[in-house]
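Input.
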Amino acid sequence: MFFLTAPLLNLSRLRADAHLVQKPTYNPELKIAWCRAVFLLIEKHVQYVHSTLSAGTLTNTDRILVQLARIAVPVVLQIAGSLMPESGYQTPQYIAEAIAMRAMLAATGAFPDFVRYNPLAAFRDYNIAAGNGFSDAWFHLGKYYEDFGNSLLAKKCFEHGIELNVESCVYVSHLDFLISQQTRTNLSAWASHTC
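Output.
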């Protein structure tokens, strides 16, 4: 089941909680939830102003968002760096999500002071995040495979995301279906006129 609602983000609440997120003893799951909210606000603001997030797009944005980002990015990098490969333990969800956030940072280059634009590093991190249970990473892997021209692996990633109820994978799958139906209809119409 899919829901089309989300809680409203409150900038003043994020500002008020910024000091907590910087404390080493604060719950890392709540730190990542705070970072997610900051990045979502930045993404919404940038889409309104610039259409896409990339290097340099934050120079003219709201200074409060920039301040919050300068707190969020190091928190994400610290938590993402805490992955213990081959430790024999299941990776906590918040670490897998932090790795996906680090991938987003490398994919956009939006914060080059912290993470430089590096699509290959982003691809690797999305792969690690997906392999460690962060289901939304499957969509990004699928998009990378599409960009690489490997539609078979892209489709497999999207299908895996659909199995895990990733909305963006469902959307891409339905969009592909509608496009293929339209193409078939156009081909049938063309064939009937030419024969």
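Helices lie at 11-21, 28-49, 63-80, 93-108, 119-131, 137-148, 151-163, 167-194.
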